[in-house]
Amino acid sequence: MFKDVRSFHCARGVVAAALVLVAIVSVAGCDDTVLDPFDGEERYFSVYGYIDDFQTTHRVRVVPVSRLSGVIRNPSDPQASIDATVTSVDLLTGAETRWRHSLEKLSDETYAHIYTGEFLVRAGRRYRLIVERSDGRRTIAETTVPRIVETFPARLGQVVVSADSSEISQNVIMEGVRAPYDITAVYFMESFFTTEVGQTNPVKYKINIPYGRGEGPTPDGGWWFTLDWVRDGAIVRDFLYRFNAQGTWDLPGQITSVSIRVRLLDENWGLANGELDPIVQSQPGAYSNVENGYGFWGSVGLLQQDFNLGPEFNWLVGL
Question: C-alpha 277: how far from its chain's center?
Fold first, then answer.
């Protein structure tokens, strides 16, 4: 089992987009000349969230569409109670999951209705989210978890070394990947330690180094980014030196393989100018895939390809 060095893990903003603070504006006044946006509108809830095939716990924020403000400042506020049952359905198998409710305090000191579902998400499958009131009225959203049907043949280009060796880089071309949200290089390390009885055991670790969204599209419809071996090497060496100083290993660590991990957004995510904008994404009706409601419910997929590296590759990171 590999231990995950989370201090280098990329904490991206997809979660922020899903749980972004969105208030449903209350309607002021009772003048008949004022247009009431709630009259004749069969919209019951705003939902914000996503499912992730890299996780087994999924969350969605639910806000009732009502004339009350959607902002909950105290658990005793009327808005702190909610008439909603949330379920999701795997439309291929019919498997149904009931999500559990909690009233959670947010970073701005307000509260939100958060529902949590526990289940495995499968790439390529379509899921339906159902938010239902006690009177049977429903808000529904569907998402298909992204999958690349073809193989995911990431190709490593030539290693490029500057004249003074201060820069060492290598392009990675990912065929069939059109709009990744997040790219991570995962370095798998191995060394050994000797037990008190003289037995030699392997020690394995992995280091996650973020690369954002990469460089951009390729002419043939793929995507590319550049591995920065100098930057990555500094991170890897710092990690190894700290562990060696603690006496964790008896021998210097070596890189055994590198994985390219790509997070993909489903086709419904609205990217403003090619970027995920939580403010734009959260506006009622903007890029919405919600029926009888507002907001957005999407999915995030995962692609990963491993490159087994021989000892000759360790010089790239200064080992």
Answer: 14
> How far apart are alpha carbons 319 and 313 in whole angstroms?
9
Per-residue pLDDT of 9-51, as tens digits, reads: 333 344 344 443 333 333 333 344 343 445 446 889 999 999 9
Query: What are the CA-CA distances from residue 315 to residues 22, 88, 239, 250 (Å)?
Result: 50, 49, 16, 20
Q: In this structure, are residues 186 and 250 in contact, taking their beta carbons and an 8 Å threshold?
A: no
CA dihedral 160, 162, 166, 171 (to 10 degrees): -20
Indicate the pTM of the whole model: 0.71
Closest listed residue to residue 105, CA positions, set 201, 203, 45, 21: 21
pLDDT tens per residue, range 165-213: 888 899 999 888 877 888 999 988 877 766 666 677 777 788 899 999 8
Tokens 């201090």 correspond to what residue?
7
Q: Are 260 and 307 in contact (CB under 8 A)?
A: yes
CA–centroid distance for 278 within its chain: 13
Q: How many CB atoms lie within 10 A of CB 287?
A: 17
Q: Which two tokens stand for residue 227?
A: 């591995």
- 86 vs 104: CA distance, rounded Å: 16
